[in-house]
Amino acid sequence: TIDGQNLNLDTLKGKPYLLTFWSTTCPGCVGEIPVLEDLDKKMQGTGFRIVAVAMPYDELPEIRAMREQKGMTYTIAHDQTGALSKQFEIRATPTSFLVTADGKIAVQKMGEWKAAELEQKVYAQYNEQFQSFAYVALLLMIFEFFVFVRKNKWFSKIRICRCNWKSYWKF
């Protein structure tokens, strides 16, 4: 990263992330910074990360100045050698890759993101995880309810009445 930390893309596996190649001299790249910043704030606490990779021709002082000027809080790396740009075959900026939790590229986009489009793509990656989380949360709530009912001995106050073919609870 531009802060001197090593970043290995393999360490990001397990959660979806957005890898975007950009340049300080690219109007589209600079234009999408607020979109990326807004998404980064919305996704805090989910494990989702945005990694912006500055191109080899960008100078480190320019990248840092841009980060300060635009208030960029997501991870910024500098592809000084151009190896990452070559690996991903970057021909123009901005170019983004939405990577799934298992490390596969789900979406590749050349050009500037629109906020609604980007959010829809990211939320689609989280849809299964959110559904699983909601299911587990519901089960925990049901379990806590029954623990509460048992603890307060509500079952002794409930009786089942049978009327014709129906059964219902009466308190």
Structure write-up:
This protein has 171 residues and is of the alpha/beta class. The protein is 40% helix and 22% strand. A five-stranded mixed β-sheet has the order 3-2-1-4-5, with helices on one face. It is elongated. The model is unreliable at 164-171 (pLDDT under 50).
Question: Mind sketching the topology for me?
Answer:
Blueprint: E1 17-22, H1 27-42, E2 49-54, H2 60-70, E3 75-78, H3 83-87, E4 95-99, E5 105-110, H4 115-151, E6 159-163, E7 166-170
Parallel strand pairs: 1-2, 2-3
Antiparallel strand pairs: 1-4, 4-5, 6-7
Tags for this model:
171 residues; alpha/beta; elongated
Report, as a whole number of angstroms, the end-to-end distance: 63 Å
Beta-strand percentage?
A: 15-25%
Main sheet record: 5 strands, mixed
Mean pLDDT: 80
Mass-distribution shape: elongated
- What string gives the helices and strands in order? EHEHEHEEHEE
Regions with little confidence, pLDDT below 50 for 5+ residues: 164-171
Number of helices: 4
**Could you give the count of β-strands?**
7
Structural class: alpha/beta
Walk across the major sheet and give the strand order: 3-2-1-4-5
**Cα-atom radius of gyration:** 24 Å
Helix content: 40-55%
